[in-house]
Amino acid sequence: MPFTRITLHKGKSPDYLRAISESLDRALTETFDVPANDRFQAFNQLDHGEFVFDRHYLGGPRSDDFILFEIVGGKPRSTATKQAFYRRLVELLAQSPGVRPEDVMIIVSLTTREDWSFSNGVAWGVQTNGG
Amino acid sequence: MPFTRITLHKGKSPDYLRAISESLDRALTETFDVPANDRFQAFNQLDHGEFVFDRHYLGGPRSDDFILFEIVGGKPRSTATKQAFYRRLVELLAQSPGVRPEDVMIIVSLTTREDWSFSNGVAWGVQTNGG
Amino acid sequence: MPFTRITLHKGKSPDYLRAISESLDRALTETFDVPANDRFQAFNQLDHGEFVFDRHYLGGPRSDDFILFEIVGGKPRSTATKQAFYRRLVELLAQSPGVRPEDVMIIVSLTTREDWSFSNGVAWGVQTNGG
Fold this sequence. Notes:
The structure is a homotrimer.
Chain A: E1 3-9, H1 14-31, E2 40-46, E3 51-53, E4 67-73, H2 79-95, E5 104-110, E6 116-117
Parallel strand pairs in A: 1-2, 4-5
Antiparallel strand pairs in A: 1-4
Helix pairs in contact in A: 1-2
């Protein structure tokens, strides 16, 4: 149920993007209460000048490999769950494809189940009347 | 007042995009309490490898024609309103440009009126002091 | 702490984008309770047909230079703060790079501090246990 928009500079290989996708999916399923196969991601690959970020604000130093993950979820998560997810995501990204932890920024926003329709015009998690 | 970001694979014709735009606008005005002419949309057309989605999770089977609609609205909507909108959107998209209902995913998120400025730096729906 | 996605038509110069970035940053620090150096922005430059907007709805007339700012913040702001920010942003953009106030649309959405990790997998503003 989460959808993630992943923003980074252009120039990475398909394998690099695939590894980001895998590590994100694994971190979500391991720590963020996300079922297997619930994978929806869009990569925004930007030119220099299109992606603007401070190199040192509240962390870093950020390099040109900086990645922003914007994650929209469909149900609440506890503070502890969020913390565990952030830690696990940077850990897995460091392993594959090899992203420096300083280069990972994450923003979570949470909606409710009925704000989602996965397919066929059906609202998710809403009771329907029989008939 | 809604703004919609529409994510899909590259390769569709201008007419196809225009038909998506029309069907979305019509579904919003018919079912989602959106006034005529309140149309704000951005298409994100992605390469293969940039758009990652499970083919079967909670619906589908999704094809390469899969489309994600992220809709930000400026006021609350009831569960029934959301359900009616989801149903109507897939119905209209099936008619024009001919999108399979299995290929439509929708995420709604709602803010408040004062979170919007449409033009000229003026907050929407906020009382201003006379003078 | 805000992240801003800036959507506009393709075709502007690097200097034009840089001036938008500067004016946005200045408006945020002056009026929106944002610290210096807290700058995170992504530009989405779209082709004609990818960016759809009504020319007159609740403002305008909007031209091909129309810009949408989607700002995600990490803490609440008052109505007055939002109003001051909208006013200041259009004022600064009119000065540099010279954007017509009619061409500026802004959408704010607010999360909480723990929804943000700026770097290194650390949740922002969350007390950690010593040790």
